[in-house]
Amino acid sequence: MPARRLVALLILAGLAVVAGAAPATAADRWPRGFLWGTAASGFQTEAGGRPSNADRRSDWWAFANDPGLIGEGVVSGDRVARGPGFWSQWRGDLDRARDRLGSNAIRLGIEWSRIFPRSTATLDLGERIDSGDLRRLDRVADQRAVRHYRTVLAGARRRGLKVMLTLNHFTLPLWVHDPLAVRRAFAGRAPDDPVPEGLRRGGWLDPGTADEFATFAAYVAARLGRHVDLWATLNEPLVQASQGYVSIPGVTGVKAPGVLSYPAAIHVVEQLALGNAAAYDAIHRQRPGARVGLVTNLLDWRPDDPSRPLDVAGAAHADQVFNRLFLDAAVRGVYDTNGNGATDPGERRPALRGKADFLGVNHYSPARVQGLGAPLTASIPLFDFSPRQVFAGHGSPMGPPCPTTCTDFGWEIDPQGLRHVLAEAAEYGRPLYVTENGIDDEEDDQRPGFLSSYVAAMHQAIDDGIDVRGYFHWSLVDNFEWAEGFRAHFGLYAFDPATLRRTARPSVRAFRRIAGGS
Ligand code: FCB
User: Fold this and answer.
1) Residues 472 and 37 sit within 8 Å (Cβ to Cβ)
2) N or C: which end of the chain has fewer CB within 10 A?
3) Probe ligand 1: pick from 362, 421, 477, 489, max atoms within 8 Å of CB?
């Protein structure tokens, strides 16, 4: 079937969904073995219901529940413990994924803090984790948590769902990262001041974190890897680095620790690239045939005014900093330490290169850029622009009004953005999965159209010759949206925090019509 007709059909199918009619399923129009599913992280979904479902050993538990940060408005004050309770509700949710959505895959997260309650650094492990090391690690690991995750992953497999498992989705164990102490260490420092020395529990600022992360990855691969089809080392490293370390509440998004330090941000990107490489190698050593990728957030960067050369240059620079910096490191082995956009001596880093068998692309919206004509910081000379992704909405209550059509979160809707970023990711020569795409829409009046139009754009990318192998919608059930808490509603299902009962939104049927039968 010619591509144009196909896309037209898909769009019609989408419109029919909106109108409540019954479109044909798209199952036979996708590459063989195409994966359809939903994505979630551990921390955002596990807590809720019984208090024991919550993980108090996580840095994000400390960050989200801190009275000072709540008072300052850095985090919403919503209680993580009022979440959807996936820790106990996973059976029903996996049934829903398979039976109601027609999924054949699911992207789940595993929480490092649940597996290892304390450091493994004292164990004197070999550089390559062998069976003796694994037994030593067994004694430190929380075996209840290991058994729990094993049951969940095997349960997904038993239901015919292929499993993509994310090892790091923004959270770190408190013994790796104490976000409140890190904030105190940065207090009173200017954005270009050097990173404070001697930080304990410094998270990704600490060079030891990459090694500890690799040990965790090796352990999970050895003990749980039988039930995993695809591995994602890190989720959105650039979001962790930028929102964690160039964090301006009310202006940028906030992730832990939420400080403002350009040198810290650029250092953290490098540490994340080292962590990715170490975890990639660790998983491959345990499971030579494993498929290990990383998940990156790609925005479609656009000049605010396309006729203004400064905005055009700014958009290209934003693309380099936010979309390409990490991919250049993890795939091509080039890390732009001085943030100037050129490959200078010493910036070729073979140890970082080739550390992704596939790329996961998270895409939600385009972003606009105003060029400033001068860098904001000497630490990242390429940063000479003002980026904006979020307009007035849950993501930025005081943000400027939406210039076009936006979601409840304040993100602009334009499905062609997905096609563009898939083309960009394809330049790195790896198979692609859309690992997140979705919309904050409690009323579900925009989601059916959003879903079908973004899926149609993904199909256009495939027709353009891009190797896209799956689509994971964010998310199955509403969950804890980081600093924004429960204000945002990204779920195909809503839930009641008192009973944990799930309620399907109309988009469940829209998703099934698109994905079902695969
Ligand atoms: C992505 C995150 C995910 C969720 C969605 C809405 O940036 O990976 O955890 O917060 O945004």
Assistant:
1) yes
2) N
3) 362
- What tokens appear for 121 in the block? 């650094």
* Per annotation, catalytic residue among 236, 412, 481, 484: 236
Find the 61 Cα to ligand 1 centroid distance in Å: 17
Please report which confidence band the pLDDT of residue 481 belongs to, taking 50, 70 and 90 as the band edges. very high
What are residue 212's phi and psi, to 5 degrees?
-60, -40
SS3 36: strand
Q: How far is the CA of 439 from the centre of ligand 1 (A)?
A: 10
Contact (CB, 8 A) for 99 and 159 = no
CA distance 62 to 256: 10
Give the phi and the psi of residue 55 in degrees, each rounded to 5.
-115, 100
Looking at residues 234-242, what average pLDDT do you find? 98
436 is catalytic: yes
Whether the ω angle into residue 379 lies within 30 degrees of 0, i.e. cis, is: no
Task: Return the closest-CA partner of residue 438 out of 424, 455, 426, 463.
Answer: 455
Q: Supply the DSSP symbol for 333.
A: -
User: If you measure from the C-alpha of residue 489 to the centroid of ligand 1, how many angstroms do you get, rounded to a whole number?
Assistant: 12
Q: Whose CA is nearest to atom 4 of ligand 1?
A: 481
Give the distance (Å) from ligand 1 centre to CA of residue 130: 35
Catalytic residue status for 236 = yes
Q: Which of 321, 197, 329, 325 is nearest to 274 (CA)?
A: 329
pLDDT tens digits along 334-350: 999 999 999 999 999 99
pLDDT in tens, 83-117: 999 999 999 999 999 999 999 999 999 999 999 99
Provide the phi-psi class of 170: left if phi over 0, else alpha when psi is between -120 and 50, else beta: left
Which residues sit with their C-beta closer than 6 Å to ligand 1? 41, 44, 235-236, 239, 297, 362, 436, 474, 481-482, 490
User: What's the token pair of residue 208?
Assistant: 């030891």
